[in-house]
Structure formats: structure tokens, C-alpha cells
Amino acid sequence: MELKFQGTMAVINDTHNPYQDQRALREVELFLEELKPGLLVKAGDMCDFYPLSKFDKDPARKDTLQDDLDSTHRMNTRQRSILPNARHI
């Protein structure tokens, strides 16, 4: 895929929602609010998908796949409200 873009861009990856560090993510979002990039690239592992993991499961974790998706959707919605004019990919 070829992407032609001139301007300021930011890249976020590995948030692993819903297990993200909320304070760290808030700092990133404050930075984005100040930077106002024209392009925000979400480079992978935004959602943890713990229920689908092949790794050992901790029975104390009760989150469902839908919980993971909902958390990631809330993060994306919040970031779109912070950067309404940016392209999000």
C-alpha cells in the first residue's frame, strides 16, 4: 500500500486494550491533542484479544472478546474526538 501524506503524523501501537496503562494512554492522548497530527497510524495490537490467545489463561480474567472490542472502540472514539480532522489508519 502506498500512502502519500505531507504533514505531521503520529504512530500508536501495542495498547492491548483493555489491559492498557490508562495513565500512559492519557499522556499519549494529551500529546496528540497538543501535536494535532494530520495522520494517526495505529500500527497494531490495539486490542489484546485475550479470550482468543493460545497462551495460558488466567481464570481470574473474566473479560470477554466483546469487552476487548468495546474498550478498543471507546479508545478509538476518544482519539477521533481529540483529532477530528486527522486521518486515522
UniProtKB/TrEMBL annotation:
- Organism expressing this protein natively: marine sediment metagenome
User: What is the protein's name according to its record?
Assistant: Calcineurin-like phosphoesterase domain-containing protein
- Renumbered to this chain, the Basic and acidic residues biased-composition regions fall at 60-73
The record's region (Disordered) falls at 60-89
